[in-house]
What does this fold into?
Amino acid sequence: MTTDGTTPAGDESEASVAELVDTFENTIWPSIDRVLAGVDVRPERGVLDLIVHVPRADVVRALRMLKQGDELQFNYLRSLTAVDNEADGVDVVYHLYSIPKNINVTVKVTLPADDKVLETATTVWQAANWLERETAEMFGIRFTGHPDPRTLLMPEDMTDVFPLLKSHPFAEIELLQGELLGHERGAGGDE
Amino acid sequence: MSDGIFGVENAWLDAAIRIQLIVGLMTVVVMGLIYLERKILARFQQRLGPTRTGPAGLLQSVADALKLVGKEDLRPRNADPWTFELAPYLVFVPVFLGFVVVPFVAGWEVRVVELGLIYFVSVSSLSIIGWIMAGWGSDNRYAMIGGMRAAAQAISYELPLVLALISVAMVADSYNLEEIVQGQAATPNIVWQPLVVVVFLIAGLAELNRTPFDIPVGESEVVGGPFVEYSGIRWSFFFLAEYAALFIMSLIFAAVFLGGWAWPLGEEWGRGWQLVLVSVKAGTFMFFVFWVRASVPRLRIDQLMSFSWKILLPLMLVQVLINGAVLVYGGSLWILTIAGLVGVGVLAKLVGDAVSQPRPKVVAASAEGEVAS
Amino acid sequence: MAITPGTANATPTETTPPAVAPSVPEPFVPTRIMPTEHPSEISRLTPIAPQPGKALYRQVLPGIMQVPADLLLAASRKSSLWPMTFGLACCAIEMIATYMAHYDLDRFGIVPWPSPRQSDVMIVAGTVTKKMAPAVKLLYEQMPNPKWVISMGACATNGGPYTRYDRVLQGVDKIVPVDVYVPGCPPRPEALIDSFLALQDQIMEERSSEGRGV
Amino acid sequence: MVTETAPEFETQDLLINVGPQHPSTHGVFRMVLEVDGEVVKELVPHIGYLHRGAEKLCENNDFRQGVGYMDRTEYLAAHNAELSYVMAVEALAELEVPARAQWIRMILCELNRLSSHFMFFGAFGVDVGVFGTPFVYAWRERETLIDLFEEISGDRMMYAYFRAGGLAWEVPANFKERVHEVLKSSRQGVKDFDGLLTENEIFIARTKNVGIISAEDAIEIGMSGSSLRASGVNLDIRKTEPYLFYDQVEFDVPLGENGDVFDRYYVRLQEMEQSMRIIEQCLERLEDGPIMPEKMPRMLRLPEGQEVYIRTEAPRGEYGVYLVSKGGNKPWRLKVRSACLSNLQALRQMSVGQYVADAIIILGSIDIVLSEVDR
It folds into this structure.
């Protein structure tokens, strides 16, 4: 739902409602809201730059609008990654930067934990090619329509292990230094 | 024909003894060269070079040789057996054949051959077959590319080398190396033929596969070229052949251009002084080769070929024409010198403007510089 | 030679009748946790056993001549160790620093050579990941005998700071026999020079018959 | 620029594997070249041989321990990597860094840019073919810089000197004189390289108009740093989004014209002079004061559900740290934006159609550090 600045008729006191609904006036939210008119977008204030939540269905459409619009011109994809929030799914994060306008925005898409499928962004920026391959093999996300969906950092035949997921365990230390000197495993402070 | 060495009359026995002397001298000199190169290159790079093995590192190349002898002898499984085995010998032997005509000191060459220069050039171009066999035989893509590059480079730089030696032989009016050296008692040939000296240096570097022409063995591209698959004693054959070729090329350079043991006053002061003369002149060529190796980057294969065919060869043909004209119509030899110096100027200009541009101005954008996107 | 825990000198002396049977300290066997191997990886990470060489020259030379021949060959091998230019990670930068003018390994006759065929020492400088392990094994096999391995830095010795990640091999001695371990992350150039000196002493010790005998 | 060979004689393309172990791949990078004669028809890069999970391991360590992993991820410019990580933690924990600490951070980051560019010149000189002289020249300067870093932080490469909130401890008393000495030797080093390589005809012949990438393609592929500025794009994070005190010192941003290998080399040479200018200005404005905020929380706990993406200008390009924290003393997710990974994506486009020898030089000109590519 697009917050058009007017506070919804709630029963909280005027002051608490005011600072609850941040109108983002000093950020670039107004222009983004105008550019992404047709998309259901929810802003959030980040520590450094504005975060924009976009629904999964039309993420590529929104990204293309952000890139091609002459008002914002986000022509530089800084980085593309994912954050695994275990229960409530994985969100894919795009950091965009506009060289002419010198402004930044972070676009986030949340994918449900059971079916992690998302449309590829390589059609918008070529930079997304390797970044998506790496995110796919690390989090198990399938980017539909990616030109060459091989693994990037993992060996070719290991497509079922996703190391950066929270569920993936850390490796145990196979041989402790102390053991060579005769102490049993777990004797010292090895928690 | 000088009489036999040590008073031996039988020609065959005499030749055999001289060849043995050469082989003995060669292994000592090559080991010294390897040690000297490492020391001089280290000095260029503000390093110390080998100092630990033996006094001041003198036994370093002895240690290297012994270690290489003791290494396991590997041959890749699907390498072509005969070409792989024979390649080192085909690279090593022609270099030693070349020593027959090399004039060390007045009477000390193995045989005075009437067409000495032609013999030397034809023998030294045999080792290319060895390189290609090594490249093909060791069934390794790097070796294959290295071998092909070695062939292309050797052929394209053989021609300027031959023409250079021919034009010097025209001035000295003989192919017999001993007569060429004796003819230079008064003035060395470098005075008459400055352009030929420059072209000989460049083509010599290319023949020896030394930087800037070490494309077949360029470490950063083809990781050692045709010698990638060789190890132990076989590889040391290639290594020794390379340094032996450097030694023989520097001796020929000293003999043909700097007057060998004749100039200055070589005849009068006897063999001791001649030996000093030859070693100093050969030493300058070797130092030049080490110096270039430490400071000049590597050419690309197409630049190398176009440089030889489009610049060196035409210059040498013109030089031979001028030599012919001056020598036949009896002009004074100083005209040759002037023509040579003009040729060197033309070569420098061709190389200069073909490559370097004015110092590139990199526009330094100040803070609010507009964005060229 | 890896220290074999407590086998050589554990034999009790029979001369004095022991009041109580001497409790032979049974050697402590560390509980080795099997690494979590992906099925496709197991075949790629099988270790290479060091095979002793044949030392042909010893069959040729008569007995009396073998001792000086061993000494001469070992001395020449010791003073011309050619490592392979093979840097993996941050330790490679310290290895390069050791070749350069400030520390200059060339003084010991140590020249880096690009091809494994002409090199004697493999310096594993950096983290060996499970994707890189087959390449390390291949390079080790390509090197002609007598060959040695220096495991430089904590990563190559036992995984270093990256041990707890399952894509990292916890130590290169799991796939290749290692002769000298260099501690440090990254070890200082002096430590690498010290490891070469230790390797040289080991080569001198190995020269007699029961050594590597290559 | 390569003439089309006559089609009638049939040639067979050769697949060359420039393997993980190769003198000029700057580490464990592998590319498979499909070569027709000497011309590269297809280039397939393979990375991941040094993927050792620095991001995953940072999630298991608390915020103070993450600095060590940042040093090892970008081991040629450890200060710049630490800077991004430490600024991200400070942004989340709202820590106010004292001015003196910021000035010292700026000086050390610029000094590290000098030592990283010297390493680039050394490695690039060997790729082009000079036997070893550029490497030794580069290391003569690097050793003076490394001695200075060792005096300050006690370690040659892995400094761990920047801490969340400021610096680990005070710099040595003679810091200013030492930095001036080091600058004098670095200035001499830059002059040496200018003489050794820039004027060299063969160097120019080998690097001019080789591996050209246009400004639009460079932006499209996401390149950053000197490789991007060599194509003429004026994007330097120290200018566009100033952090630390970069807005209080004036310096120029060198731009190349046609984005070939020579421009990438020459832009880095110019950048080193600018870095020295910055360091001198910083030294004048460095005044005494505390280097850590007074009320440092004993156990660094970050607020719930915050995230930040900090980017700084590392020698190889934009080194970004995306830090997500869900409370507690361990980061929930730490992503390192690697400049070399994006620059490497352009390798294929620059090398196809060139010679094999050029592909090696183009790879050298992007100046990659493999542990940053594979993290």
